[in-house]
Amino acid sequence: MPGQGETMRRKLIADGGSTKVEWVLLSPGGVVEAHFSDEGLNALLATREEVEAAFAKARERISEYDAPEEIYFYGAGCATEEICRKIEDALLHVWPEAKVSAASDLLGAARSLLGHRRGIACILGTGSNSCLYDGENIAMNVPSLGYVLGDEGSGAALGKRLVADVFKHQLPETVRKRFLDKYGLTLSDILDKTYRKSAPNRFLASLVPFLKENLWNPYIYSLVHQELRRFVKRNVAMYDGARSLPVCFTGSIASVFHDILKDAMAKEGYKADTITKSPMDGLIAYHGEK
Q1: Residue 108's beta-bridge partner residues?
Q2: pTM for the full model?
Q3: For residue 66, what is the DSSP state?
Q4: What CATH number has the domain bearing residue 74?
Q5: Domain limits at 284?
Q6: Does 167 reside within a domain?
């Protein structure tokens, strides 16, 4: 709550993922005035012009309200100070009077999940990431390494395992046929979408609904379970205190497979704390209290 003499300010919060950017405008009293999503944005890959165009589009969506006085952007690809400055400069170009702040989607996830508590925050969505959070900032990060070298437990990693098992004839034949009938993808299609087209991680993650629909099959269940255990072994387990600190998750994969995730954590000797689909509700609470 603001102290005596302080005034609340209108705040714009953005959760900028590779698949979508979720925006929320808070009134000076902390009430949600606008809530919408736009096309995804990766700060690492997008040009300054593309970022400014995306922000200008968002500004049009909230033009009926007063301009935000503070803007908090948590984005995929905001991995360095230079990239964060690029985002902040683009925000100032669109909202020149605002106080702006750009940070990683991982810090956004940590603030959403843990508030001011110390703990471990994890993202399991199109990609994956994790950190040890000290209650305000990231104290340690086991690097994600992206969908080629890492991203264990992510939608991209699950999709990669699925298509590899389809075309290497590892899946039970009935399930393999169901996949081919559902998507109509040939080997040539898979190679083209994975190695030649843009955003192969998004393509691979787009196949996750098939896994959800077929969890009844022991092979599919085991594939998901094994991949989530890989995330725990190669990420969560690397943080000191992981068995005593709260370990929290956000993201579509964490939400869709929350029961399997809890079991995968338990099998490795850990306990899953909060699991959410999106960090936005937690970010509203975090920034709404200031």
Answers
A1: none
A2: 0.86
A3: P
A4: 3.30.420.40
A5: 11-111+280-288
A6: no
